[in-house]
Amino acid sequence: MYIDLEGVDLCRECSLSILTLLIDTGIRTGSVYPIDMHTLRTQAFYTAGTKRKTLKDICQNEMILSVFFDVHNDSGTLFAHFSVALQGVEDVQLMESATRKTTASRAFLSGLTKYVKNNMLTSFGGSELTTWKLAKEKESDCLKPNMAASAA
């Protein structure tokens, strides 16, 4: 399960706008779920599904891998607002830093856009990178009204 949070200055005092889930089932199905946190609020984490599990239960299950890019602020946000104590987390940003050849090259962490540009070009063609960039820009544009309202 891959998780991305979007909001205004993600931290304990932030406003979480969208939680995006990508569920990897092993086949390319496009199982991406954007969750409007302004509308659902705690229901997003506390509503049980057909197997009587909530998203909170899943996020706190150490046997279910949750992948983040820069989990630090996301983790604090989820705990402060929804009492979700993440377990079974892998942070791609930290893994990328750990694989660098020299200690000096680890002085700064890469942001997601730089990471995708530098590391995913070999896996995906230029058109897929362009598609990804356009999707991120569209997501950012969609969040701007919510972010402005949250900041007020």
List keywords for this structure.
152 residues; alpha+beta; Nucleotidyltransferase, domain 5; 3-stranded antiparallel β-sheet; two-stranded parallel ribbon; 7 helices; 5 strands; globular; disordered C terminus
Topology of this protein?
Layout: E1 2-8, E2 15-22, E3 32-36, H1 37-40, H2 43-46, H3 55-59, E4 66-68, H4 71-82, E5 89-91, H5 92-98, H6 112-119, H7 126-151
Parallel strand pairs: 4-5
Antiparallel strand pairs: 1-2, 2-3
InterPro entries: RNaseH-like_sf (IPR012337), RNaseH_sf (IPR036397)
GO molecular function: nucleic acid binding
Describe the structure.
GO terms for molecular function: nucleic acid binding. InterPro entries: RNaseH-like_sf, RNaseH_sf. The chain is α+β, with helices and mostly antiparallel strands. The chain has a single domain (2-151), classed as 2-Layer Sandwich (Nucleotidyltransferase, domain 5), CATH 3.30.420. 43% of the residues lie in helices and 17% in strands. It has helices spanning 37-40, 43-46, 55-59, 71-82, 92-98, 112-119, 126-151; strands spanning 2-8, 15-22, 32-36, 66-68, 89-91. A three-stranded antiparallel β-sheet has the order 1-2-3. A two-stranded parallel sheet has the order 4-5. Helix 4 links the parallel strand 4 and strand 5. The model is unreliable at 146-152 (pLDDT under 50).
